[in-house]
Amino acid sequence: MTISDRSQAVDVQRTYEVRTYGCQMNVHDSERLSGLLEEAGYVRAPQGSDGDADVVVFNTCAVRENADNKLYGNLGRLAPMKTRRPGMQIAVGGCLAQKDRDTIVKKAPWVDVVFGTHNIGKLPVLLERARIQEEAQVEIAESLEAFPSTLPTRRESAYAAWVSISVGCNNTCTFCIVPALRGKEEDRRPGDILAEIEALVAEGVSEITLLGQNVNAYGSDLGDREAFSKLLRACGQIEGLERVRFTSPHPRDFTDDVIAAMAETPNVMPQLHMPLQSGSDTVLRAMRRSYRQERFLGIIEKVRAAIPHAAISTDIIVGFPGETEEDFEQTMHTVREARFANAFTFQYSKRPGTPAAEMDGQIPKEVVQARYERLVALQEEISWEENKKQVGRTLEVMVAEGEGRKDGTTHRLSGRAPDNRLVHFTKPEAEVRPGDVVTVEITYAAPHHLLAEGPTTSVRRTRAGDAWEKRNAAPQQGPGVMLGLPKIGVPAPLPAVTNGCAVD
Questions:
Q1: Cα separation of 69 and 66, whole Å?
Q2: Pairing of strands 207-211, 243-247
Q3: Where is the MTTase N-terminal domain (predicted)?
Q4: Alpha-carbon distance 485 to 497, whole Å?
Q5: Of 377, 280, 389, 376, nearest in space to 327 by CA
């Protein structure tokens, strides 16, 4: 059955809702799922529908320990709604679906479709098959059927976009189950990546984020160790592309040619998110992380020497099995030395199927909690000190949508500085749209944002702002992808990265 045939088979009024949990890769996949459903004739459910849609899709994450409970709790809340609504369908995809497979239908027999990370393109077909056969369809592919970027998409931002450059991961971190669920790394051809970026820019996108679960290992599948730095430099040649970001690199693959490309390519932003996970060499060895504290801090030093105003963020796991107080103090030492702009800190989450889950020396909850609180307090102090250094600087801020929760009451707008810091600024008299760029002077700093209380120095209307205005002039079908975690960066809104998932 063709897409056209399926479109005719589906009532044009049938609505869908996608609920997304986890990493940026899942957010990007959900844009593809939305695109597939809309091409098949579905329309986005109205905002606030809260499950009151004809099709509800869960795009799941398997990294955190409570992922299972969260999914089955949400499925349980939908069960009576489905009973009252004949024809309603529920689909579960993503990493947890890839892991649990038939278990989902056994625990929640009212689920209609279960699909994995490798066959998201099959969702419309599986929904139609489940409707016709009146039984659950469970289809989990063991290898990638189609690169996600070849599928239709419904992007959540008119001015900023994800561009996937690779899928899968070749690392064997003992705390992470993702490689088993996403498979080995597969790289896209550079020409395909650049063609997609050029097409996005032609649509009005001015910022892209290169996405991979180990993004700077790009090229290992192509036999070119410098492929990632070459890709960054090639992005610098695309007219109209104002900002380039990437997430997330692995310290093992962070080479000098990448630092040079970042420093010498004007539209590559002075921002780096590089997961530390632990500052203890002993714990890093147990995690099977192939770098040590000295190597990590050496990369930070080189980046700051080449890009003095770079904002560097990280991920840290507290309470990994066997972590001693001395090990934890090494993490605290590394944080003091690195002076991260911000850090996403996690208490170790035991995941069945990972080597770490079977390790001796599991740390008591109360010990992990106490260490976690000490680390958060230290990082809050450093973040505030680093943000205070921004006071008095004049920055170009790309106006964002949905970043400032209090903007309506404070009469401010919000956006992202080149280094990805969140900036709230006084609303100028001139019309400003998401995607436009304003120039402001920073007057105040808090641990998690900057404030520009004075008048806006300038407003630059952009093609990205034009694209946002054009999109919002059309009738809207409902909310964007709903995220399960706090947001960072752009495209807005984003979930915070989670340890072990797309942030190796």
A1: 5
A2: parallel
A3: 14-132
A4: 8
A5: 280
In angstroms, rounded to a whole number, what is the distance separating the alpha carbons of residues 326 and 489?
A: 33
The pLDDT confidence band at residue 149, using thresholds 50, 70 and 90, is low
What b/e readout covers 110-119, taking b as 16+ CB neighbours within 10 angstroms? bbbbbbbbbb
Pair of tokens at residue 39 = 């091409």
**The tokens 């970001």 sit on which residue?**
245
Cite the annotated binding site for [4Fe-4S] cluster by residue number: 23, 61, 95, 169, 173, 176
Backbone conformation region of residue 393, classed left if phi is above 0, alpha if psi is from -120 to 50, else beta: beta
Q: Tell me how far apart the alpha carbons of residues 431 and 125 are, in angstroms, rounded to a whole number.
A: 44
Residues 134, 180 contacting (CB under 8 angstroms): no
Question: Tokens 């009738």 label which residue?
Answer: 475
Residue 294's SS3 state is helix
Nearest residue to 383 via CA among 332, 330, 339, 317? 339
**Half-sphere exposure of residue 13, counting CA atoms within 13 Å on the CB side?**
1
Q: From CA 368, how far away is CA 322, in angstroms rounded?
A: 11
Q: Residue 160: beta bridge partners?
A: 207
Higher model confidence: residue 156 or residue 194? 194
Alpha-carbon span 480 to 477, nearest angstrom: 9
pLDDT at 3 over 70: no
- Report if pTM > 0.85: no
Residue 498: phi and psi, rounded to 5, are: -120, 145
C-alpha span between 431 and 460 (Å, rounded): 10
- HSE, side-chain direction, 13 A CA sphere, residue 429: 2
Q: Which two tokens stand for residue 161?
A: 């976009």
Cα–Cα distance between 71 and 95 in angstroms, integer?
Answer: 12
Distance CA 133, CA 127 (A): 10
Q: What is the pLDDT of residue 485?
A: 29
* Inter-CA distances, 15 with 38, 47, 129, 286, 298, Å: 9, 11, 18, 47, 52
What pLDDT score was predicted for residue 495? Answer: 37
Annotated binding site, which residues?
A: 23, 61, 95, 169, 173, 176
Closest-CA residue to 213 (of 248, 188, 183, 177) = 248
Beta bridge partners of 395: 440
Q: Among 21-25, 83-87, 99-103, 431-435, whose mean pLDDT is lowest? A: 21-25
The pLDDT of residue 27 is above 50: yes
